[in-house]
């Protein structure tokens, strides 16, 4: 129970669910980035210019996936609201990421920055 004059901290499952959805979306980033890197590597042996571009784009998507995964983990632990919010923003192209972003943003008061 909270002492007089203090507000009791809310506790809901929204950051946990939002974090899980962001983690799932980040896994999709890993799959997509991995396919782009693998596909680009297959084309690069044929000296096709697009192959190298696909490898670079795939690597960027993999890095974004790592950032999103870290933010999703922080969201499930209710730590570092800014990184959790950034992860949600990075995963907006996925409907799961968008829902995760909304859940994390709505539950801002539950994070212990």
Written account of the structure:
The protein has one domain (14-106). Helix content is 73%, strand content 0%. The chain contains four helices and no strands. The chain is mostly helical and 113 residues long. The chain has helices at 14-44, 49-77, 81-90, 95-106. The mean pLDDT is 84.
What descriptors fit this protein?
mainly alpha, elongated, 0% strand, 113 residues, 73% helix
Task: Give helix and strand order, one letter per element, not per position.
Answer: HHHH
Could you name the ranges where pLDDT drops below 50 across 5 or more consecutive residues? none
Rg from C-alpha positions?
Answer: 18 Å
Distance between the termini: 22 Å
> Overall 3D geometry?
elongated
What class do helices, strands and sheet pairing give? mainly alpha
- Main beta sheet: strand number and arrangement? none
**Count of individual domains:** 1
Helix proportion of residues, in percent? over 70%
Beta strand % = under 5%
The chain-level mean pLDDT equals 84
| Total count of strands | 0
Number of helices: 4
Short description:
With 113 residues, this protein is mainly α.
What does the secondary structure layout of this molecule look like, with pairings?
Blueprint: H1 14-44, H2 49-77, H3 81-90, H4 95-106
């Amino acid at each position: 129970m909270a002492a007089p004059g203090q507000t009791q901290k809310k506790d809901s499952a929204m950051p946990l669910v939002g974090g899980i959805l962001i983690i799932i979306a980040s896994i999709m980033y890993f799959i997509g980035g991995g396919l782009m890197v693998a596909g680009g590597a297959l084309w690069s042996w044929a000296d096709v210019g697009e192959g190298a571009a696909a490898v670079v784009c795939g690597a960027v998507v993999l890095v974004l996936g790592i950032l999103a995964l870290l933010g999703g983990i922080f969201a499930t632990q209710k730590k570092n609201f800014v990184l959790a919010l950034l992860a949600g923003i990075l995963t907006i192209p996925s409907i799961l990421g968008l829902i995760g972003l909304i859940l994390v943003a709505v539950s801002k008061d539950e994070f212990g920055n």
